Amino acid sequence: MPIAKLRDREVQAGKDSAGGRESVLAAALESFAAQGFHGTSMRDIAARADMSISAAYYYFPSKADLLRHIMVSVTEDLIAILETARDTASDTPAARLAAIVRAYVRLHTERQTESFIGTSELRSLSADDRASVVALHDRVSDIFKTVIADGCRSGQFDCPHPAEATRAIATMCTAVAGWYRASGPHNPQTIADRYATLALRLVGSAAERR
Fold first, then answer.
1. Quick one: three-class SS letters along 112-135?
2. 67 with 40: CB under 8 angstroms?
3. In whole angstroms, what is the distance from residue 78 CA to residue 206 CA?
């Protein structure tokens, strides 16, 4: 029996839900990365997932729903990772900032395609979905803002423009997903460490002024 028909039979029987859903998500990621959201159809995604289009629609009602799921998922995971990095770092603003920058960079290298799509295709979301994702991005920014504000209040950071510093740090970390290559000269940890140093210098960390 052809694979697509077998997949349809499994869907109809309520089987293979987790595996089928992950196959559609993986196919959508590949398609969006290669062709862009607007250049991709559900038929393209179904073909990459090696299933019929009706089976693909069983898991996700539209490509817009797939895009929203990808963006929300990776951003929620980023928030959780940043919060863990912040809360487990030693209790100084410099240590917390370095930890969250490293965590940010690592996620953007380890889940590069999701992270890249999460920023490059934001404009492709519906107004409501875009508002939801932007709200998540604001939570990411708030993590950085709080740490930088703590450093400024304590005198450990000499940063006259903390809002601009927050945007600059977030932007440089996000951009990693656009240029990082696993075959490049530096591994993710080296890049993460260097970006942490850059971030500390940007906020005028006392540790970097010595």
1. HHHHHHHHHCHHHCCHHHHHHHHH
2. no
3. 28
CA-to-CA distance for 37 and 117, rounded, in angstroms?
Answer: 9
The secondary structure element, H or E, covering residue 167 is helix 162-174
Predicted structure pTM score: 0.87
Instruction: Report the distance separating Cα 163 and Cα 153, nearest Å.
Output: 14
- The C-alpha atoms of residue 124 and residue 144 are separated, in whole angstroms, by 26
User: Per-residue pLDDT tens for 156-187?
Assistant: 999 999 999 999 999 999 999 999 999 999 99
Q: Number of H helices and number of E strands within the chain? A: 12, 0
- pLDDT, tens digit, for every residue of 7-18? 455 454 444 566
Nearest-5° Cα angle at 120, 117 to 125: 85
CA 31/CA 40 separation, integer angstroms: 6
Residues 192 and 160 placed together within one structural domain of the fold = yes
**Together in a domain, 49 and 86:** no
Which domain-ending residue is among 46, 61, 76? 61
Provide the 8-state DSSP code for 186.
S
**φ/ψ of residue 205, rounded to 5:** -60, 135
112 in the same domain as 186: yes
- Cα gap 80→84, rounded to integer Å: 6
User: Cα–Cα distances in Å, from 7 out to 1, 23, 47, 54, 92?
Assistant: 10, 11, 12, 10, 53
CATH number of the structural domain spanning residue 185 = 1.10.357.10
